[in-house]
Amino acid sequence: MASSDVKPKSISHAKKWSEEIENLYRFQQAGYRDEIEYKQVKQVSMVDRWPETGYVKKLQRRDNTFYYYNKQRECDDKEVHKVKIYAY
């Protein structure tokens, strides 16, 4: 994905929880579609992750404040359907 302005081709909603959905939930809480958009906007090559779980640890919002996340799952089952999955 060499383009600096990648747009998603389609969107679907999550049906059940997975590790991928957990990380998407964290990116979307911070105001981004996913890791691709976060890296584009913030011009970073890596995202801080918990080494034990691989979940996102810290994200910087567009207003430059930070979101810090726990090692454990934060996306409750009742929130899963709100997570959007973008296809490129």
From TrEMBL:
GO terms for cellular component: nucleus. It holds the Pfam family Meiosis_expr. Signal peptide: none annotated. Belongs to the MEIG1 family. Essential for spermiogenesis. This is Meiosis/spermiosis associated 1.
